[in-house]
Each structure stands twice: as C-alpha cells, then as structure tokens.
Amino acid sequence: MNAVAYIDPQVISFITENLIPVRLMADDPVFGPRFKIKWTPSLLILDSDGNEHYRTLGFYPPSDLIPSLLLGMGKTYFDQANRPAAISLFQRVITEYPKNSLAPEAVYMKEVSNFIQTHDPSHLVAIYDRLASEYPDSPWVTRADPYRFLKPSAETQPGMHAALPPEGKISYPSQGGVSQ
Amino acid sequence: MVEINWIESFDEGLRRAKGTGKLVFLDFFNPG
Q1: Choosing among B9, B18, B23, B30, which should be mutated to test the A contact, i.e. which has the most A CBs within 10 A?
Q2: Nearest 5°: phi and psi at A49?
Q3: Cut 0.90: pTM above it
Q4: Does A159 touch chain B (CB under 8 A)?
Q5: ipTM (interface pTM)
Q6: If you average pLDDT over residues A131-156, what whole number do you get?
C-alpha cells in the first residue's frame, strides 16, 4: 500500500480530509488479537469508540481504495442509523465511481437505507431494477432478486406489494473474505 | 512531499476521532 496507494495525491487528500488514519503493526500484541488480524494489509473502518464496521483485505490501487473507504464509511453510518450520512456516501460511490466493482453494493445499500428511512418499498424495487439494468453481471443482482416480486402487478391494487420484508428484518451480506 | 500523517497509537486515534467527528481508518500492516 505504501508503494502505490498511499503516495497517490487523491488518496492522501481523501484520507486526510475524511478520516483519522491509524497504523498498527499486524503483530501488535494488543490490537492484533483484538481485531483477529490474520493477514495484511487489513484495512478497517472504526467508529470513535473503536468498534469495527467494515473490513477489507489486500492491496488496493488508488482508484479502488477511495470507493472502498466511502463504502466502509457509509456502512458505519448505516450501522449507527445515520441514514442521511450513509446515503450520501453510498451515492458518492455510485456517482463518482460507477464502473468500480463496489458500485453495485453501494446501489443496494443506498436503496436499503432509503427504504428503512421512508418505508417506501419502491426503493427495494429500485435496487433490483437498477442492478439488473446497469450491473447485470453483478452477484448483487441475485441478492436483490426477491425485491422484483414487490413490483405492483396489473392484478395488484395500487399501493399493494407482495411479501414486503418487515422493518428491521432486512438482511444484507456482510463483508466477505475475512478468515476468523 | 505531502504524506498521510499516520497515528501510531490506537487510543490517540480514537481521541482525535471523538474530537473531530471523523471515523477511524485503521491499517494493520506488515513492514517485512
């Protein structure tokens, strides 16, 4: 990371302006075990109480690191129920990095956040519609597949939707790839 | 040359996060 991403001016500017950068050795006797570090680089986003909300592994080129950090920041605010802040960060991934591999997940998380905030199921339908049209090869299309059944059909009365998930019961995939 | 001003103390990182309202970016690295 030192050789590529951390010398990129945009990365330096983004991290300096938006985050508190902390660097620890992977074999730190206290925090290595506390965060179950098994591989480096391990990149985490924490809240100010030290709680982990996002983790990713491996080396990032500059063009991928910033959207990853934006997604992690958004997930942190999502966990903290700060939906407007989360939506804003997910939207930045979608708008500023539409070709990035994390953009489909940002679409999913943004509309889930909108749904939780508004209870309007059209946001869940929008997840499927947008992913299917703009990111048809993404695995996130499959994860959003049930939401296409929420579309009002010709036989459904206006305002009625099928199988609406109860608030707070919506699951979303956690960040993968971390061995425990 | 401008660089990332890494903090090498976990507790200091949290203290600054509380003071600024920012989140913490924690990088575990292996210098070897």
Answers
A1: B23
A2: -95, 0
A3: no
A4: no
A5: 0.96
A6: 87
